[in-house]
Structure of RNI-like protein:
Amino acid sequence: MNSKIFLVLLSYLSITLAATITCKQVKSEICSSCSSDNFQCTTDGSGKIISLLINNQDFSKGIPSKIFSITTLKDLYLNDDKIKTISSKITNLNNLRRLDLRGNQLTTLPKEIGNLSNLKYLKLSNNNITSLHSTIEKNKALISLYLSNCKLKSIPSSIGKLSNLESLLLKRNKLRTIPEEIGNLKNLKELVLDNNCIFELPSNLIEKDYVSYKNNDSIDCLTCENLKESLCSSCSDSDFECKIDKNDKIYHLLINNQDFSDGIPDIIFSITSLKQLYLLNDKIPSVPAEIGNLINLKRIDIRGNEFKTLPDELENLSSLQYLKISNNPLTTVPCVIQNIKSLIYLYMSNCKLETISSEIENLSNLQKLLLGSNELRTIPDLVGNLNNLNELVLSDNCIDNIPETVDTDKVSVTSDNYNVEKCEYTWIQWKKGDPIPSNAVYSEDKKYVVGHTEINGGIHSGYVDVESGILYLSYAGPKQYVSNIEILTIPAGHYYWKEINQEPLYIDGEKEEIVLGGKEALGSYFYGEDLAVIRIKNENVEYFGKMNLENYGAVGFYDEYIVGKYEVLIYTKESMDKVHYC
């Protein structure tokens, strides 16, 4: 049989078969329980189906083959039907002028779509399509092409051959460039490119009034490449590492051995997709509140920096499991940590920790707690309540005994290397004119007496100038100066200092005030047995007035210490602001 005759006969049979299919049959076979909103079928004067709408069904196994038998179809609407693929049988529907497949699960289109020569309206928005086949150029009749809210990363230049195209919707995709061939479409009346990552339009599209080009600078456009260029252009591969997930979002970022002494770059806190953040040895002076924006973080490693506390906003990180803050000048465990109940690993080795709050028992999921190389003398008994704990590292501290509450059969405890030099100390309780204590340690030039103060189990190093009687204290860095009042005690781990420009405090006995020399001791509290207390705030002195030590009233939060015959109230910024009293 002649092939042409065969094709004509096949076409005739197809049309005849299509003519015998009724709307009732289609509903019965495909959508028997559909509501009138989800099933609509229209026929022409001869009873042939020309329009079919079937929405909100489960076609995840494929579009029903019955539909491809309705060759008379001109309009086909299959919205929100969980369609994953389109069969090559779509070419049977060569009379289609409108194909609406919005809201499905398509990732690609078959090249056979290009054979639909009568297709004028193709709507594919709200799918997972990442690319278009170049055969799209064969759909010469296309007037409207909707591809919004897909996952398109590129557009083929062949789209510039769709000479009848009037409307092209490409908003909310992942496009970074647009082919200049689109600018050659003479009939184009609407081009929507909003919410992509297109940083520059082709020159032939600039200032065209039919182009919508909004919100193309979203953080979602950030790539590992331009992040490195922005933050770490000269970084070695070992100091910069960036990874993206299957949705092209950055989930892992490592930037080590850089100079962030001016602060962690703001752009990092806008990458809300981050799950792992490593910033080691970057000279970070503080961790800002914006860390709380990174709500998906599971792992933070910021060891080897220069911060002394952590912001309360860290509590927002409800998925955080690993927190490594070792090798930072922390003197106390930041109170916010006790509220991060999701923590599994907590690393705080080689800080300057002097105390551990009993509230650490709140970390019920904690498995590993590293506290080595600090200045700890005791561990709270309540550590034993951490039922999931399997490793506790306490080596190189001043801890004589592990609490009996810790089950050492269950928990691996490392507590060796008791540091005699660090853990043995003498008291500084001396005033000018008194004999130098026999156990005092002189400096080489015999001008200073060296020792430590002990309050509440902590240590505070310092020395006394023999000639002036001034007590010099060294605390987490720069030396601070306090005048030679009769007896001075400083509670280690509680007293809060800001650098005061190496100028001394002194007591004015007549005014019963302590006067600060320098400008940077903001927000600290100072007191002595002269019964005066002042507060330094914004470079101004607020005088709290005389305090009767024998009949005092509680003012805010305070620590009470007995030193010789004196009863001394010691107020600190931490206690007033509940920093150390969690």
